[in-house]
Amino acid sequence: MLVKICGLMDPKTARFAVQKGAHFIGLLFSKVSPRAISLEKAKEIVRAVREEGGEPVAVFADESLTEMRRIIQELSLNVVQLHGDIPRSFCDQIPQTKIYVADGKPYPKSLQTERDYLLFEQHIQDPQGFRFFMAGGLTPENVARMIETYHPHGVDVSRGARDETAIGQFIAQARPGRFGAFGGTYVPEGLIAPLKELEKAFREIPIEEEFLHLLRDYAGRPTAITEIPNFAKAIGGPRIFLKREDLLHTGAHKINNAIGQCLLAKKMGKTRIIAETGAGQHGVATATACALLGLECVVYMGQTDIERQSPNVFKMKLLGAQVVPVTAGSQTLKDAVNEALRDYAARYETTHYCLGSALGPHPFPAIVEKFQQVIGQEAKKQMRDKIGRDPDVAIACVGGGSNAIGLFSAYLDEKTALIGVEAAGAARFQKGGSPGMLHGTYSYLLQDDNGQVQPTHSISAGLDYPGVGPKHADLFAQRRVKYDICTDAEALAAFQLLCRTEGIIPALESSHALGYLMRIAKDLPRDAVVLVNLSGRGDKDVAHIQSLCQ
Description:
By secondary structure, this protein is an alpha/beta fold.
């Protein structure tokens, strides 16, 4: 769905709109409009829009051909919008892509169905093969309904979305599942129906009360905030606190999402749950939730990960799950996701795919974020209760990105600096990743010039993935979150140091966040406060680390 925001008058708001996912920004030049702008102001807006990857559009209503050509040339425009008889009479003489306001008159022969657009302001007319925009009276409250009713190619809003709050709400409703330019639903036709069913169920089936009850009385929330002064002293750093997701039932944050999705699936009438897993924690969490709720469970896991995460494989089987080895490709998390998606497409009538991270096609990123937000909500309150303020820095490891999204969600509108840490051998943001499509979503991934997914490596199975959740891609594009890397050696050193200084055995995934902190600690102010999300415990990794140290 294309989104055009019309009548913006300053570069800041225009930049914000494109960051949130608007494709076109309309610049009004009609002298009778109260929102008309000067050419000099238009240049500032055009520069801001193009820096963010958007397309500026000159909106003409009463200008002469000479005036239109002057403006087009001054701004180097690729797209124009034509209102009124004067501009439209010159349609044949303007080579740029045109958005032509239709009002019942015959369309000019020069309009091209493969390039130009029609725009309907009052009601939908027969577009005769044209791509078309809807406009007129659209608001954040009605745009989703209008899109569902009329199926336009794009929507155009002016009075209904002028400030940043309304613009953000409008774009979110017009492009559900989008995080700025990222996200979406890029899947085979066979998956569209189950994803729409899931989106509807997630929106309409109430599970909040039961979900929170199970988190509290079964999973063990809220989890503790623990200060680690011995570790901090050893690295010469500031005050450091851990958000202890490792203390949850099953040993990691994954149980939050697994309980939420399995509960929703049961209320949808699904009897079979499938999942993918890398480190095994999501597999264990899903198997646990299925045992609790009386659901069949099948977990896909790469053969490489099965061998390095054998304790978790045994736990899944103890809990009644069937673990299916995946021997295709690199035999890791990417390949497990492939197999799970194939299963979902074939058996969705009775099966729900409990995707474990904040990635994949819409609505999965939004669902996983919703169920993991409890991490940030708790941490924010606990830190304010404990030290009277928010942390200066919050750090989390990033594979697919669910634990980080859970923590960061509470601080996006605060002053806290946010840092996501990738494995050095699977660094989408810091090692040449680029936007592309993987597993049904548009995000950053490791790929070659031909779009072929590149192999990855990490000592941590949970970070050994070539893609990342689309919200992380958007936060990277907005520069709201800094993403950096941690090597295998740094993660191992952090693992061992936390064990020796604090008596806490962290998961290798979380050890990457700690390893990065060890590297930068001496550069931080002595009075700074750092919060690290300890996403899981390291019981599952002990045998693997023991084999590496022999």
